[in-house]
Inverse folding.
């Protein structure tokens, strides 16, 4: 089933909700040539590449996944060639600095491009996604020497990156990392240890792999404060930049997974033959701090994967629902009709569409905040947008991925019996999406981050600032006064109040009843996603009402989707607030033995 | 991972919520030897068989599914032997009449036994499940001759049954069935046509397969009123009961499915070599009516599959959560603890447990209503219980299966990265559960049935009768007066009111705004499941408070689970009522072209 990038919706969101015109005005982006007219050009180009080159690989790659033989991973047919084109066309470097070969454009634009490659193939896109995170970590913390040696080849797509964090005993809790880094006289380190779940930890799509590895030096303190970050290339790099000997890092197995099968998930053994040569990134013992840079980029990116797979599953379901003729129309058609005319099929498609559009709008809004944080000429705006972005990252990650499982599951359901047959392809999305709430920090980790660092730590100030922005939109809805605006206003007000009550409860009780409050962390994350997503959809409605005459078909659909979201998805907010405020005790009552 | 049948919870539900003592007092069951002490004996025996014989086959069978070669399906190793034991021990015949070799016991007892075999292996259990439906259809509609010829061998497990309904163009809409049945001079028929998605339509676990096939006679009216039901044995049966020639029905392919892989799903070709010999069941053109008997049994059974796979996924997740040590306790433990101590893990496990226990209680309650409908000596009670059972069937099917997908998905999530690795086994439940909302009538079909035939047709009378029963429980909660009872009362009252408002809205508007009302059919089904499930859990709490001293550990857990359900799951009811009452219009706004 072909994928058609939703360029129109992406541009609408970028222009009307995320403030593209302001973003491209920031000096560094303007210098790089960004303007509002560049975005459609880039998006069209990206759409073409992903629709034509990557998307057709998605289903065959699932049936013929990457395989391991004698330590060598052979990726699925077509990935190598597609990745070469991806790099050559400059897609790896959209946001990265021109001095290293990138384009230096806003994250807002790059986000749309990445959404497309994820929709085209989650398995494929993981390779550039992880490489992107590795580039960002090197740019943040590595010495100019390391940057010059590694970053340009990663941006060009000649080499890829990997993130080597997890160990068998250290998953969500990285303080338990045990890999060792022993300093050598020449300033390098010898790295020893086992890393698991390493996405594209071994493959044949690039000439070299730049592993970023967490390890402990011999006299490092215990826990998170004793972890350092190292570059460990698969092949050593000579002084002139050419490739040298094989480093002592080897893939010993790849996982047999539920989904994203074409993406090799490696177990890597470092140092079994004398020690892998590693280069310290930044300072010793600050590794986790650097890794967080990479992880925040990756968390946002995984959120985009959720939106991307939801979009793909939605398109597929719509196509099937238009094609499949079965049963009469409920209102009494003379003969059977396409199932898209059945109200419950519409309910499923609208749910898929509503979640996807709302999550996209919120993620792009967050990307614009990231751009403002990094490139706005106004210091106060930079600071404010940092708080906005940091609040939104766990929501973009957690909410978009949780909804993607539901959306992919609905995609199967729309197909009926056909959905359960693998060849149909709907089941692949259901399998693929299932990893998204797990890797790069489970939803629980995102929810803990949102409640602890992002809400309680500032006494709920950032959360309240969002509530105030929503109230402004409520005023705009009231002034608009259309039936749609009024219907949304009613639900948005109730949901915003539920959000505010939850924030008050959480801030007031986090110290005295930590387990009770954190029992509601998932509900709080979901509530935030719903209310902020609905807020973006309400803003979308207001913009669509203004712009309607230019493209009635598109804008009417946007208006209807905004109202559907408010009336059919958003009302869950109040149930979630009850869980948060009243449900903590009963969640924690059972002892481990009583389960 | 071993399965341990939750016999204690099953017996609690049977005795305290479903009225086992009354059920076994009905004359026909009493004559068959049923009494309250028989239930634990049977359940323990069933537990032993399923735990020891069937459950260990579940994971290997997924990895080594049934295969087709030259029209012969070889089932996964172990299934044949296990099915032989299943039949020999009498498990196929628990509810069926003694005159045909069954035990003649209540459905309430059989339901617990079937839950166990489904938990042990959904793929395996489908074979007896479909056979059960076929037996029921034959007992309802077939001539004594056909019954005598086929039923005893099916009850003994020597032969199995299949339900051949679906054709490529006739899935949810059976009026479009095109298979033909041509009468022969000797009173038999020649059957021609293609049937798809036939569970255990071909296999090597029994000596013969008794296909029940929907087809049209030459001069049958169009649509549902022209469908007849036929017995088409795989091997013809001689007058003396011995097996004769191969009939003209052949398996041409089996599906490559997302889950329940060990269960062969066949495409069957009837009559490609001159016509398959079929025997009319009952009267011509009444086939759909008979098939509904079978389908209602099968729908209830699929609901049990949902509960069963949820139970299995829950047990697995609990075990992992107890074993996996990671991160400190939030309240500040000296070192890392098992993840079961993390509030969000408890939230997931409690959600899994809450849904499973509530759905079990509701299904067993429904089974008891079935028994009263068929065996109560009181005519008014029979009639009343028929309405109760018929109202509950789509809820047991739709709610239990929808929740099973969520529960299986949470099971994966509790396992973190391990959950995504196939060898762990959690992913199998996630894959297997995905069919349950589709086959034997999708959730949309159940929801349409619930709203149309079960709610609107009697003007909401049955629904209101449930509301009154819930109000009685609310009074009991108020009299109890414990903190737990009061907390549940608050939520149950709000949810019951949401249910009542929804019923009023649906009944009032079903004629004038059919598409708007049916847009809320899924929400209504889910609302019914939540409020009726919570009602059973409230009744469970009241019973548990009385019985607590006898087994504090078990009953305290029941009380906590009831309260968790009320505070953390039930509040969704109000959001669903908003969807039903206010959300219909926006669900239907988009035209097919706008998607």
């Amino acid at each position: 089933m072909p994928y058609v990038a939703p360029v129109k919706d992406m541009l609408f969101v970028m222009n009307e909700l995320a403030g593209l015109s302001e973003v491209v005005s920031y000096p560094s982006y303007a210098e790089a040539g960004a303007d509002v007219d560049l975005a459609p050009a880039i998006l069209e180009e990206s759409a073409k590449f992903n629709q034509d080159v990557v998307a057709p690989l998605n289903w065959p790659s699932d049936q013929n996944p990457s395989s391991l033989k004698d330590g060598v991973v052979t990726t699925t047919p077509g990935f190598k060639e597609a990745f070469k084109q991806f790099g050559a066309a400059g897609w790896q470097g959209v946001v990265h600095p021109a001095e290293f070969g990138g384009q230096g454009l806003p994250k807002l634009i790059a986000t749309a491009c990445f959404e497309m490659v994820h929709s085209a193939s989650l398995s494929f896109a993981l390779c550039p996604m992880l490489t992107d995170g590795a580039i960002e970590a090197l740019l943040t913390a590595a010495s100019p020497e390391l940057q010059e040696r590694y970053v340009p080849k990663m941006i060009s797509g000649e080499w890829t990156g990997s993130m080597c964090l997890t160990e068998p005993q250290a998953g969500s809790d990285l303080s338990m990392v045990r890999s060792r880094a022993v300093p050598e006289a020449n300033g390098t380190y010898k790295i020893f240890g086992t890393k698991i779940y390493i996405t594209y930890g071994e493959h044949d799509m690039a000439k070299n792999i730049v592993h970023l590895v967490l390890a402990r030096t011999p006299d490092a303190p215990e826990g998170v404060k004793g972890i350092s970050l190292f570059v460990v290339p698969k092949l050593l790099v000579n002084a002139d930049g050419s490739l040298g000997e094989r480093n002592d890092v080897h893939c010993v197995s790849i996982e047999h997974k539920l989904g994203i099968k074409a993406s090799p998930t490696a177990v890597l053994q470092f140092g079994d033959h004398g020690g892998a040569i590693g280069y310290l990134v930044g300072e010793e013992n600050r590794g986790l701090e650097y890794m967080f840079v990479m992880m925040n980029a990756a968390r946002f990116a995984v959120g985009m994967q959720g939106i991307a797979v939801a979009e793909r599953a939605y398109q597929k379901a719509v196509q099937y629902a238009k094609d499949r003729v079965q049963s009469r129309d409920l209102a009494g058609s003379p003969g059977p009709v396409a199932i898209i005319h059945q109200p419950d099929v519409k309910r499923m498609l609208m749910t898929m569409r509503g979640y996807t559009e709302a999550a996209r709008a919120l993620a792009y809004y967050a990307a614009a905040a990231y751009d403002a944080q990094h490139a706005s000429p106004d210091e106060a705006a930079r600071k404010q947008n940092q708080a906005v972005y940091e609040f939104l990252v766990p929501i973009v990650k957690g909410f978009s991925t949780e909804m993607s499982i539901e959306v992919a599951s609905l995609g199967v359901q729309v197909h009926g019996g056909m959905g359960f047959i693998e060849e149909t392809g709907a089941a692949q999305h259901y399998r693929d999406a299932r990893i998204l709430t797990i890797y790069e920090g489970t939803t629980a980790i995102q929810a803990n981050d949102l409640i602890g660092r992002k809400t309680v730590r500032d006494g709920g100030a950032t959360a309240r600032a969002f509530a105030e922005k929503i109230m402004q939109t409520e005023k705009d809805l009231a002034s608009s006064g259309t039936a749609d605006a009024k219907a949304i206003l009613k639900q948005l007000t109730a949901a915003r109040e539920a959000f505010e009550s939850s924030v008050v409860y959480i801030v007031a009780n986090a110290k005295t009843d930590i387990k009770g409050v954190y029992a509601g962390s998932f509900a709080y994350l979901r509530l935030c996603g719903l209310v902020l997503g609905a807020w973006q959809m309400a803003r979308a409605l207001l913009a669509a009402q203004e712009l309607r005459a230019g493209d009635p078909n598109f804008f009417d659909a946007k208006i209807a989707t905004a109202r559907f979201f408010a009336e059919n998805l958003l009302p869950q907010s109040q149930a979630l607030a009850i869980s948060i405020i009243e449900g903590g005790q009963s969640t924690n009552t059972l002892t481990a033995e009583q389960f």
The longest helix of chain A spans residues 287-323. The radius of gyration of chain A is 24 Å. Chain A touches chain B through 96 residues (CB under 8 Å). Chain A has a mean pLDDT of 97.
